[in-house]
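Tokens for chain A. Residues wanted.
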């Protein structure tokens, strides 16, 4: 392992991240020093972002000076390790503002929130602290476990803040400073397209190892051929085009939200767009996206951009360049077929309990939120008919398209598995038949097919293991299944104790750690992390 080369590239990444930190730092300057205090009556967050910025710079300098005399030789093994390190350091740095401002006093809670943001999972531990009315002392939440005589006993995570100008007590999201809310959504936006892509775009020194980083971050089994051809021959140019499309989608959604709903502030429009295009799902108010239920246009805009975030970004490039024939794509067609079929089923079952207008609006929103792995909630789907909940659970695993910000298995893998199954059926009665498996116009080589089978097997094992670990930690079965499905698919939408209107604050420390690890596994699609556990990976060449 060439540790000096890794340290050198890691230092460059941290320099980039420190530059990005200037954005939330400027936001904190605006809210803490420029606008009038009665408009933002919160403790200052400037010091937290200044410290985080300084810490990142120092860390970059340490890695820079320890990497002198590097040979600039960089291969696949180093790329895999670097990808994992980038995500680990990013999430640690992402947790610092939460801890320093005491928004989340428990480091595990702060790290959970950071990992959930960067991996675009969207699960949260934000919960207002509860106080005794008479004594003013903090008291726990006590909630009965599903189908059990036992109880969850847990405490809130967000301190109450008193507005000294109005003497109003602010709780939950209302007690969180605007710069922290911005940072929380911003890290989700950074993680959406992949922080590695930003790394490749900015650093010219990655011309040596950029290809390996690209493959470690994306989906190499679908990276070649006419089906998923590169936007440009060079990896750096590809990443650059992806970021331009990503920024463009975010700007368009922000403007649409702001100008179609007079009750949405520009701040809310920006942060909602961050969470939508990244298919992340963080909300910035207690009521979440459900607060816009009285504005159907707003919900339909969010639905549109959840779908946009779950579409392969290469499709936008073909659309912009006028290559419309390339939009006739089997994965794109199947993705929209999944939307139509699953939304239709949920609306149909939901209309047996509610009027059609409610069923169509809420059924469409929640199903698409689950399928695109965004995780927004506008309704209490926990009380919906069980078939609706089952469909939502299933579509979390389906996910969006490859090359998108979405989580889940990805539509292309479902196509590959189906065609492999179909070929197997043919071979049972025509063993001498020679049939080439294709994805679009591109043949699927045996190595790629093997990767898909292994991915599916690991996903099943991880889903079962995660559920068992949480059950042994005292989590009820239905909640454990929902949480494992949520974290491993980076959805943020789950059921029962962590369902709509609730958070993950009730989780014991061990279950929070399990959720953190599973979010990483899902975001990096298992192999980049699991390879680090094999002894042969650490052996010298």
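Reply:
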């Amino acid at each position: 392992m060439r540790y000096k080369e890794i340290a050198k590239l890691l230092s460059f990444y941290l320099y980039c991240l420190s530059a990005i930190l200037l954005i939330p730092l400027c936001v904190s300057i605006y809210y803490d020093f420029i606008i009038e205090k009665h408009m933002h009556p919160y403790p200052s967050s400037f010091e937290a972002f200044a410290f985080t910025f300084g810490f990142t710079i120092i860390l970059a300098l340490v890695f820079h000076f320890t990497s002198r005399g590097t040979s600039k030789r960089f291969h696949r093994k180093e790329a895999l390790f670097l990808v994992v390190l980038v995500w680990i350091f990013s999430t640690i740095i992402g947790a610092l503002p939460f801890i320093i401002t005491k928004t989340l006093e428990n480091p595990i809670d702060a790290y959970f929130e950071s990992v959930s943001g960067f991996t675009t999972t969207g699960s949260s531990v934000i919960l207002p602290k509860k106080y005794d009315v008479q004594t003013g002392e903090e008291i726990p939440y006590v909630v009965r476990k599903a189908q059990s005589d036992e109880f969850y006993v847990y405490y809130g995570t967000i301190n109450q803040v008193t507005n000294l100008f109005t003497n109003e007590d602010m709780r939950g999201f209302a007690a969180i400073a605007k710069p922290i809310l911005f940072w929380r959504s911003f890290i989700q936006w950074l993680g959406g397209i992949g922080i590695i892509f930003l790394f490749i775009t900015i650093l010219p020194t990655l011309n040596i190892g950029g290809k390996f980083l690209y493959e470690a971050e994306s989906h190499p089994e679908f990276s070649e051929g006419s089906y998923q051809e590169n936007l440009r021959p060079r990896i750096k140019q590809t990443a650059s085009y992806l970021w331009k499309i990503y920024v463009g989608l975010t700007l368009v959604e922000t403007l649409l939200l702001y100008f179609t709903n007079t009750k949405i502030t520009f701040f809310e429009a920006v942060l909602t767009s961050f969470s939508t295009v990244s298919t992340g799902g963080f909300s910035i108010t207690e009521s979440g996206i459900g607060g816009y239920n009285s504005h159907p246009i707003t919900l339909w805009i969010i639905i549109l951009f959840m779908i946009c975030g779950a579409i392969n970004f290469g499709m936008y490039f073909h659309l912009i360049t006028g290559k419309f024939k390339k939009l006739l794509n089997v994965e794109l067609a199947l993705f929209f077929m999944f939307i139509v079929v699953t939304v239709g089923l949920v609306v149909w079952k939901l209309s047996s309990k509610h009027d059609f207008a409610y069923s169509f609006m809420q059924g469409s929103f929640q199903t698409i939120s689950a399928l695109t792995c965004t995780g927004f909630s506008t309704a209490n789907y926990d009380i919906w008919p069980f078939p609706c909940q089952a469909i939502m659970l299933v579509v979390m695993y389906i996910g969006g398209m490859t090359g998108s910000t979405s989580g889940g298995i990805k539509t292309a893998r479902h196509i590959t598995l189906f065609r492999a199954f179909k070929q197997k059926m043919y071979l049972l009665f025509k063993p001498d038949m020679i049939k080439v498996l294709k994805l679009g116009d591109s043949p699927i080589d045996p190595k790629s097919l093997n990767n898909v089978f292994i991915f599916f097997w690991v996903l099943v094992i991880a889903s079962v293991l995660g559920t068992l670990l949480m059950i042994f930690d005292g989590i009820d079965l239905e909640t454990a299944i929902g949480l494992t499905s949520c974290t491993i698919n980076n959805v943020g939408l789950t059921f029962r104790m962590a369902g709509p209107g609730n958070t993950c604050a009730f989780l014991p420390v061990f279950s929070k750690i399990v959720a953190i690890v599973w979010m990483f596994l899902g975001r990096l699609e298992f192999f980049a992390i699991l390879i680090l556990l094999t002894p042969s990976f650490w052996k010298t060449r």
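The CA atoms of residues 129 and 159 lie 6 Å apart. Residues 446-472 form the longest helix (27 residues).
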